[in-house]
Amino acid sequence: MKRFSIAALLFLLLPAAPGLAGEFPRDDQQVYLFLAGQGWKDFSLVDGSAVTDDKGYAGGIGWEGQFEGDGYRGYWRPRLQGYMGRSNYKEKTVSGDIDSKSSLSGMSAELDYLYRIPVTQSFALEPVLGMAIRMDRRVIGAGSAGSTADNTFILRGRYREERRGFMARIGLRGTIGELGGPGDERTLDEFSARHLYVEGGLLVPAYMEYQGGINQNRIRTKYYPGAYFEASGRIGRWQPAVYYETIKYDYTGAKQAQSDVLGFRLGMRF
Q1: What's the whole-model pTM score?
Q2: How far is the C-alpha of 32 from the C-alpha of 88, rounded, in Å?
Q3: In sequence order, what are the residues at sequence separation of 6 or more whose Cβ sits closer than 8 angstroms to the Cβ of residue 181?
Q4: Chain CA centroid to CA 64, Å
Q5: How does DSSP classify residue 24?
Q6: Is beta strand 143-145 parallel, antiparallel or unpaired with respect to 50-65?
Q7: At a CB cut-off of 8 Å and minimum separation 6, what does 47 contact?
Q8: Cα–Cα distance between 56 and 213 in angstroms, integer?
Q9: Residue 112 and residue 197: Cα distance in Å, rounded?
Q10: Of 9, 43, 65, 95, which has fewest CB within 10 angstroms of its CB?
């Protein structure tokens, strides 16, 4: 976890390297709060049925900025956030369902490069190419199922799961609103106070590592291309957004899993 934390910080400093970015525009920073519903399921490789079902929420705080890149049209968009949450965990066994609670904590770091292609004076398309580092830890509480009367009692102890991953982000963003132009030095208050952004794309696997279970086994995990979608709007200094993300994992032939996140974010630009 420590190695990935250091990598995440260095990752976000890339746009500040000499010759890579220009002056950082103060008006294009934001701090935001977010709350998301999270779902996690593990599936059996035998019949494809869900063997665990983990549903809950996570909330946290984040920062997003923009660095000028290739003149007016190209720019870098770093994002760093941390979160914590709780969920209800259900595991299917031969003796019945084991119900328990789980807690989630983690952080993510993203760095995207966007290139603005004006279509009209109030609409632009922006291809997105980026990278993301994800780290999270889930602690699953103890639980039991069955009964001692018929010798079907199962007691499962508390254990921890950790996931660390690196992925590419490939997408497209549409921007509706006054676009400005090269040399435009207006502040955020003077510039168009209302914009609408719609973005979607793929999360392409690069590396994924899982460590967990009762024995704390470490597994090099592959996962399939996922997808993300985000819609946001700028109203003065406020920027609300809704987003969705889904990723499917494969634990080297042991089992498969799927993660789904649907959330709301509220940022204040300064």
Answers
A1: 0.80
A2: 26
A3: 72
A4: 13
A5: P
A6: unpaired
A7: none
A8: 20
A9: 15
A10: 9
The whole-number average pLDDT for the span 76-100 is 86
Structure tokens at 180: 């400005």
Residue 10: helix, strand or coil by DSSP?
Answer: helix
Residue with tokens 């609670």: 101
CA 143 – CA 226 distance, rounded (Å):
32
The single residue listed with the structure tokens 């979608």 is: 229
Encoding tokens for residue 44?
């059996």
Q: How confident is the model at residue 107 (pLDDT cuts 50, 70, 90)?
A: very high
Q: CA-CA distances (angstroms) from residue 24 to 17, 73, 81, 204, 222?
A: 12, 15, 20, 29, 37
Coil, strand or helix at 120: strand
Q: What sign results for the dihedral spanned by CA atoms 32, 230, 55, 103?
A: negative
Contact 212, 159 (CB under 8 A): yes
